Amino acid sequence: MRVIITDSYEQMGFEAAKLVAGQIYLKPNSVLGLTTGSTPLAMYERLLALHKTDGLDFSEVTTFNLDEYIGLSAYNPHSYYYYMQENFFKHININQENIYIPNGMTNDVTAEGIHYEQLIASKGGIDLQVLGIGQNAHIGFNEPDVRFVADTHMVELNEETILANSRFFNNIDEVPRCAISMGIKTIMMANRILLLANGRNKAKAIYKALCGDITPQAPASILQLHRDVVVIIDKEAAEFLS
Ligand code: PGA
User: Fold this and answer.
1) pLDDT on residue 242
2) Residues 110-136: tens digit of each pLDDT
3) How many Cβ atoms sit within 10 Å of the Cβ of residue 232?
4) Fewer beta carbons under 10 A from the terminal one: N or C of the chain?
5) What is the β-pairing status of strands 229-234 and 2-6?
6) Which ranges constitute the DSSP H helices of 106-220?
């Protein structure tokens, strides 16, 4: 693992954007795994700037998002589809046909999961997967559990995640209780993984992910077994790293 500790959240985003941009410059038809939440916003902002000022070209890029809430349509402002369009896709020259996000409106989550895995495989797999991390060390919506779940699957969100994500909703009752998420194998099959975190509230999760036992109780700890992980975190999230 390569760990980069930055002075600020903005710098975390800048370093992350440089790594993603480098991937696209080297392989214009890269397959990117993308994430949502507040963590990657600074990275997306920098990538937009690189697109506008330096002509970073997304025309051949394909993207797969990690997860989506069950029951929220693409038009729902709380859906991850909507988030991705608003914060990233509508500002760049990506081909909309190359954007893949699990369908939260499916009435057959198992079939949707199988289809999503097949799509990823048909594009040759993910070159670079960007991840945030939950305060409970989840990645994607892979919550602490007694086992690692391999493939894209339905998840029941745990109370900590529902509470953490309620800040994006009017009240906690509006937060969907279920999601569809890439599994741990889907994530671990990516050629390269970029893990981002900022803020003191992520410090424990980062410690568990990088230094703790490898256990499904801290899903991000599995990343210790991946051959090519870059961790970019601000100094608050790095508080417990020596
Ligand atoms: P956040 O979420 O970026 O909004 O903190 C990260 C995550 O839950 O994976």
Assistant:
1) 80
2) 999 999 999 999 999 999 999 999 999
3) 26
4) C
5) parallel
6) 109-122, 159-165, 184-188, 203-211
Cα(44) to centroid of ligand 1, in Å? 14
Residue with tokens 């424990």: 204
Q: Which residue has the tokens 């599994």?
A: 183
Q: Identify whether the C-beta of residue 32 lies closer than 8 Å to the C-beta of residue 1.
A: no
Q: What is the pLDDT of residues 44-88, one digit of tens each?
A: 999 999 999 999 999 999 999 999 999 999 999 999 999 999 999
Any ligand 1 atom below 6 A from CB of 142: no
Q: Residue 140: CB within 6 Å of ligand 1?
A: no
The class of domain 2-234 in CATH terms is alpha beta
223 close to 209: Cβ distance less than 8 angstroms: yes
Which uninterrupted H or E stretch holds 35? none
Query: What is each CA distance from 179 to 101, 107, 110, 143, 182, in whole angstroms?
Result: 12, 12, 12, 11, 10
Q: What is the pTM of this model?
A: 0.97
